[in-house]
């Protein structure tokens, strides 16, 4: 698929953002909007307007503005928005997650992993393959055909190397996550290459997204092997 070739995108494809509404504000709204603009440009779609973005968000929370909510915001190839609000319980940062390495590399169009869209099969399949559960605080770690780590199915990841938190480069085939961008802007993480063979069972990592924030996690290759043997 060539960059900016709208015809090669499925008609049902829409840009997607999951936005946390809490304490009467939309968390990292500016970064969410900036990413939507960048993705629209990449797809050769009209530039979505900020006033339309804000209007869709406020309409979604109109009757529940006193609650903590997850906003599912969609932007189509016409540059127009739609949004729905869902109840959301803020995740406590002391909840430790387990990360399992997938058993095969990601096989998906590069633009559909570098931009967040409604086409989610390349994330859903690893979860089914390993039998993991988000409610059980389990995440699947993905990698490309060169063996480079890319991301989790619902999160970005960083590993500790030489005193720094290293997160995969976008060029490796990962989503330009909003929380990832926030942490990069604050120099809390830096980009680099991470090969799957470098990872150690029991290694401590961090995973993060704009809904759950930054979470401690542990790589569990033992559980991965058990899941594979059952398949």
UniProtKB/TrEMBL annotation:
One of its GO terms (molecular function) is transaminase activity. It comes from the Eukaryota. Gene3D superfamilies: 3.30.470.10, D-amino Acid Aminotransferase, subunit A, domain 2 (3.20.10.10). GO terms for biological process: carboxylic acid biosynthetic process. Belongs to the class-IV pyridoxal-phosphate-dependent aminotransferase family. This is Aminotransferase. Keywords: Aminotransferase, Transferase. InterPro entries: Aminotrans_IV, Aminotransferase-like, BCAT-like_C, BCAT-like_N, Class-IV_PLP-Dep_Aminotrnsfr. Pfam families: Aminotran_4. Signal peptide: none annotated.
């Amino acid at each position: 698929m060539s960059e900016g070739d709208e015809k090669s995108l499925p008609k049902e494809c829409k840009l997607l953002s999951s936005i946390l509404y809490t304490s009467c504000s939309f968390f990292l709204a500016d970064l969410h909007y900036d990413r939507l603009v960048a993705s629209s440009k990449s797809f050769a779609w009209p530039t979505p307007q900020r006033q339309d973005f804000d209007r869709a968000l406020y309409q979604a929370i109109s009757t529940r503005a006193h609650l903590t909510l997850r906003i599912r915001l969609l932007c189509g190839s016409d540059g127009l928005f739609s949004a729905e609000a869902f109840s959301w319980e803020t995740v406590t940062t002391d909840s430790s997650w387990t990360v399992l390495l997938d058993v095969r590399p990601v096989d998906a169009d590069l633009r559909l992993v570098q931009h967040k869209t409604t086409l989610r099969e390349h994330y859903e399949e690893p979860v089914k393959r390993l039998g993991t559960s988000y409610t059980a605080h389990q995440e699947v770690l993905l990698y490309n055909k060169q063996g480079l780590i890319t991301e989790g199915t619902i999160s970005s990841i960083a590993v500790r190397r030489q005193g720094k938190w290293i997160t995969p480069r976008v060029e490796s085939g990962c989503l330009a996550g909003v929380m990832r961008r926030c942490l990069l802007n604050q120099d809390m993480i830096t980009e680099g290459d991470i090969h799957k063979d470098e990872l150690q069972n029991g290694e401590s990592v961090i995973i993060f997204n704009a809904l759950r924030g930054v979470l401690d996690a542990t790589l569990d290759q033992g559980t991965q092997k058990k899941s594979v043997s059952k398949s």
